[in-house]
C-alpha cells in the first residue's frame, strides 16, 4: 500500500473501509509530556467511536508506553525527594516541615501501579483495544526479516527494531481479519512496513490523520457558518439561486377569496433573502474522496405578485363577462431544504458543484387573501 495518500484515504474513509486506527509509541510519548495521558489531541482519538473506527494498540506499544510513564513518574518522584533533602540540609530550622512533606509523598513502590491506573483509564475513555502479538510472527520469519533487512529492519541499529517488527506483525494480523488500518508513526521502519502491507497505511502526523475522519464535518460546518457570517457570500448566493430556480420552474396554486369569479396568473416570484434554519446537527448524506453532499434547511422570504382577472356570469346567455382585473403582491416565509454538493476536499479551494431544492419542501400554493377588483394604488 502507499505510505500515505490523502486522497486515497479520504475515499477509503468515505466508503467505510478504514476500520482501525493505531499509534506508535513515539506519537504517544511525544504528546504525553506530563506522563498522565491527558493531552487533548490524544484524548480526541475518542471521537473515532462516532465513525465506527476501532482504536487499537499493539500490546508491545502498550507495554512501552506504560514503561515510559513509570520511568517518568519515578524520575519526578526522585527529583522531588532529592530537592527536599537538599532543602533540609540548607534550611535546618525547617527540618520538620521537610520531613512532613516527605512523608506525604507517594511511596516509590506505588509508582508502577499509578502509571498502570492512568494508562487503563486512558484506554477506557478513548475506547482502545489492545491487540496481542502472540503468534503473530514466527521466529524463523522474524529472523529472516532481520538478516534480509526487510522492514522494519534497516540500518546499523536494526537490532533495536525487534519490538516494532513484532508489534507490526500483530497489527497486520488484526487488519487481515478486520480490514484496513491507518497507523500513525514517525518511525521510517513503520512506514516502510506499511508500504509492503496489504491493509496497513501509515502517516506521521496525528492531527492530519484524525482530520481525515472529520474533514466532511469541518467543511460542512464552515459552509453553514458562512450563511450567518456572510449573508451575501458565495455559499448563501448558491442556496438562494437554487431556491430561485425552483420557484421559477413551478406553477403555483393561487389561493384567494373575492366576491366574484376570478382567475389568476403569477407575474413575478422573487426570493429576497434566506436564513439558516438548522442547529448544530449536520445532515451529511454522501461522501467520497473529493466531495461531500449534505442538507441545508433555510427559511426563505419570497415576494410573489399575481394578476387577477374578474368576471361575472351573464344570466341571459350564460356567458362570463370580464369586469377587469387587479394586481396583488404578498411576501411570505417558507422553509426549504436544499441538497448541496461541494468538492475540493483537502484543498483551500472548496467549490459548490450543485444545489437543488428537495422536492418535498417546494412552495406549491400561495394564499393572497381577499382580493378586490379594480384595485388602484392610494395616492400619497
Which helices and strands appear, and what pairs or packs with what?
Elements: H1 6-14, E1 18-23, H2 25-31, H3 40-43, E2 54-58, H4 59-90, H5 95-104, H6 111-126, E3 128-131, H7 139-147, H8 162-178, E4 180-184, H9 188-196, E5 200-203, H10 206-229, H11 234-249, E6 253-257, E7 261-276, E8 284-287, E9 291-313, E10 320-343, E11 351-357, E12 365-370
Parallel strand pairs: 1-2, 1-4, 2-3, 4-5, 6-12
Antiparallel strand pairs: 7-9, 8-9, 9-10, 10-11
Helix pairs in contact: 4-5, 4-6
Description:
Strand 9 and strand 10 form a beta hairpin. The longest helix is centred in the first third of the chain and has 32 residues, at 59-90. The strands form 3 sheets. The chain has a 5-stranded parallel sheet with strand order 3-2-1-4-5. Strands 7, 8, 9, 10 and 11 form a 5-stranded antiparallel sheet that branches. A two-stranded parallel ribbon has the order 6-12. The protein is α/β, with parallel strands linked by helices and 380 residues long. Helix content is 40%, strand content 29%. It folds into 2 domains: 6-204, Rossmann fold (3-Layer(aba) Sandwich); 226-370. The chain is built from 11 helices and 12 strands. The chain is elongated and about 120 Å long.
Amino acid at each position: 500500500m502507499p505510505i500515505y495518500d490523502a486522497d486515497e484515504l479520504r475515499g477509503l474513509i468515505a466508503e467505510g473501509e478504514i476500520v482501525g486506527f493505531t499509534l506508535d509509541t513515539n506519537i504517544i510519548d511525544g504528546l504525553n509530556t506530563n506522563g498522565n495521558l491527558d493531552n487533548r489531541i490524544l484524548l480526541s482519538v475518542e471521537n473515532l467511536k462516532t465513525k465506527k473506527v476501532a482504536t487499537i494498540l499493539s500490546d508491545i506499544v502498550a507495554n512501552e508506553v506504560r514503561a515510559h510513564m513509570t520511568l517518568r513518574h519515578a524520575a519526578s518522584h526522585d527529583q522531588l525527594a532529592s530537592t527536599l533533602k537538599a532543602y533540609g540540609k540548607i534550611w535546618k530550622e525547617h527540618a520538620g516541615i521537610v520531613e512532613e512533606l516527605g512523608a506525604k509523598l507517594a511511596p516509590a513502590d506505588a509508582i508502577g501501579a499509578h502509571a498502570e491506573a492512568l494508562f487503563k483509564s486512558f484506554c477506557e475513555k478513548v475506547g482502545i483495544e489492545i491487540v496481542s502479538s502472540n503468534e503473530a510472527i514466527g521466529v524463523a520469519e522474524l529472523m529472516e526479516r532481520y538478516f534480509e533487512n526487510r522492514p522494519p529492519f534497516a540500518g546499523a541499529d536494526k537490532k533495536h527494531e525487534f519490538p516494532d517488527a513484532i508489534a507490526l506483525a500483530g497489527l497486520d494480523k488484526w487488519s487481515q481479519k478486520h480490514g484496513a488500518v491507518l497507523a500513525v508513526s514517525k518511525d521510517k521502519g513503520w512506514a516502510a512496513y506499511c508500504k509492503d502491507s496489504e491493509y496497513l497505511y501509515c502517516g506521521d502526523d496525528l492531527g492530519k490523520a484524525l482530520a481525515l475522519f472529520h474533514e466532511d464535518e469541518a467543511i460542512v460546518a464552515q459552509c453553514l457558518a458562512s450563511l450567518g457570517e456572510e449573508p451575501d457570500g458565495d455559499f448563501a448566493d448558491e442556496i438562494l439561486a437554487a431556491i430561485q430556480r425552483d420557484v421559477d420552474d413551478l406553477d403555483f396554486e393561487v389561493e384567494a377569496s373575492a366576491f366574484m369569479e376570478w382567475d389568476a396568473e403569477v407575474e413575478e416570484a422573487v426570493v429576497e433573502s434566506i436564513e439558516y434554519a438548522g442547529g448544530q446537527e449536520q445532515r451529511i448524506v454522501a461522501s467520497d474522496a473529493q466531495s461531500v453532499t449534505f442538507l441545508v434547511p433555510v427559511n426563505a422570504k419570497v415576494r410573489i405578485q399575481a394578476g387577477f382577472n374578474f368576471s361575472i356570469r351573464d344570466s341571459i346567455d350564460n356567458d362570463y363577462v370580464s369586469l377587469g382585473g387587479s394586481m396583488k403582491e404578498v411576501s411570505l416565509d417558507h422553509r426549504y431544504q436544499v441538497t448541496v454538493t461541494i468538492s475540493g476536499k483537502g484543498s483551500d479551494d472548496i467549490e459548490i458543484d450543485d444545489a437543488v431544492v428537495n422536492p418535498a419542501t417546494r412552495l406549491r400554493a400561495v394564499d393572497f387573501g381577499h382580493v378586490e377588483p379594480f384595485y388602484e394604488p392610494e395616492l400619497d
